[in-house]
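One such shown below:

_____
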Amino acid sequence: MLYYILRPIARLFLKIYYKKIHIIGMEHIPTDRPLLIASNHPNGFLEPCIMACFFPISLHFLTRGDLFNNPVLKVILDSTHQIPIFRFRDGFNALRKNKENLNIANDKLNNGAAIMIFLEGSTEYVRKLRKFQKGLGRMAKSLLDEKEDSTVGLLPVAINFSDPNIFRSSVVVKVFPVKEPKDYAILGENKEVNKEISRLTTDLYETIKDGVIHLENSDNEKVFNTWYPRFMYDAYPATHPIMNHKEEILKRGKKLAELMDTEKPTELFSFLQDKDVIEKLNDHHYFWDAEKMQGSRFLQVLLFPFLIIATIVNVIPISLAKYITNTTVKKKVFYSSVLIAAILSMYAAYTLILILLGCFVNKLFFVIIAVIPFSIYLSIQYFENREKLEYSNAWNDFTKEEQQKITAVKKYLGK
């Protein structure tokens, strides 16, 4: 029940947090058969949240079993379609529960459910696809051993973040056509079964890698992360619509990774590594030729009072959410996940308090509730218009030669 209550609320917050959410291949998601969804896992809890909110099907998830040790968290996890899976570090007593939990997962699949599995096994924000575990193949085998006529399909999904911890950044999800587990000889017990599970896992890896911005040389990751959001920005200049189903931004990211993964550095790559150029770049979030996207100084002045109002009415929940996140998150990979959850919680509590104050103190508090969404929307318009006004200044910070090389990189990326 909680899953269906939180889903539209989380969807709204994700549309605010991210400037664009690109989902490519939505037509590959069947709604009439059970699915084992295979995905990479670069950023904490955001991947399952994004897919649960924007995929046209209800999802279940295999989740770290130790999280269920907290009784309050267990209630939330159970009611949001989480199924616990324990690891060796959780102890043998916990591991014994996995058989029962996998039976629960099989029952759900037999009833037409979709279950998501993160094949990398753990979450880590790196610009590459890490080695896959064989858990999904074993689950498919277990299901087919139990019910040979099962119609379960394997749905590969790749997800990329321009920068998951930056407000108004972007997400790119690519969904691939369903693979059929029956195309692999994983039924029964013989020495070839493990080889077939390995083949299935390898096939999933190669498929998903095609949708991941994969940087083989991790030494170049910092430089890549500096340039990538800047080169992607003009692919989604408008505030609306939030959703985009074009593959252009993924192709650009993969081309940029290819440019930086070359064994013999090219002139363009040497330019992208230039410290003086990067220093200029770090002074601005984005840059682009001024004539491409014009900001309005009049609009900036017009929106400024609404920014003040937005700051006043939203400062309490936002500040509390940031404080909670900054004091509790120890790993960067979980930062944005916890921040969004904290914002949701703080706004729920804030709204409830305003309702009580409106009922028992002064009805003007109801006005604040009505103002909150409009103030958020208009403040986002303010900041995005300000970015457009900064473009010409940012572009003009570069020399003519640097501008020509940036233009050459843009051309290489296919702009």
